[in-house]
Design goal:
This protein has eleven helices and no strands. The chain is mainly alpha-helical.
Amino acid sequence: LESLANAEDVNIAPGVLPLVIRAGGGSVRDTLSVLDQLIAGATADGVSYELAVNLLGFTPENLLDDVVNALAAEDSTTVFRVVDQVVQSGQDPERFVQDLLERFREGVIVHAAPGEAAGILHGMPGDQLRRLEAQAQQLGAAEVSRAADITAAALTQMSGATSPRLHLEVLMARLI
């Protein structure tokens, strides 16, 4: 993917290619199509992380950071403020839960393989990895694992739900 972006003379910001791979869902053809879409939407500066998040519909990192930090601090006010922000900004609550589950997965990896996390979490920018390590440390290994289990179960229940916001709020209550 990096070679293709270079061949097209498009600068790809750190952290974008892992998003492209996730969006491709394991299909090489779909992943190449996603990269092509990002390149088509690139600015003169290339494809920034923020542009990729917006174009691919992923949750902005700052919202995930806010909710995970609030969960670690047992700050329910901030947790529900983030939920409201997700809904009010028009983001898909199910997508938010998918991205939150991915964040907890990364936290599990950081705890399970602290020296190898950077290699396992291919292409994650260093600042993002440091934030993830701090969050995982704050929560603790058992809590990150528990949060991942609860989030995975909630995601299964959310599929096709008529009230995604309600399911998201119940998930947050369980996580708190």
